[in-house]
Design goal:
This protein is of the alpha/beta class and about 80 residues long. Helices cover about 35% and strands about 10% of the residues. Strands 1-2-3 form a three-stranded parallel sheet, with helices on one face. The longest helix is centred in the middle third of the chain and has 13 residues, at about 35-45. The protein is globular and about 40 Å long.
Amino acid sequence: MIGTAHDIMSIVTPPRAVFVDHPVGRTFGPPHDRDRNEAVLAAALAELPRFTQARQIRDPGIQWSADGSRAWEQELLAEMRQDR
């Protein structure tokens, strides 16, 4: 599983999971950003041989913002409010 909600992944405990620090619904990156989408998938697949136990969650350090900023949370919230 590749997921963006670490807290939920910890409760549901899939057999193997890779955490991606991206907004929910944008697991592989921004829409139409093929390079980013492929990079996220490649990084997640590269984690497969690193699993050492069942229900492990691996974090390859993929973040939405290069600087680790979480400003996207407010941007996404504003975007969702506009759709209403």
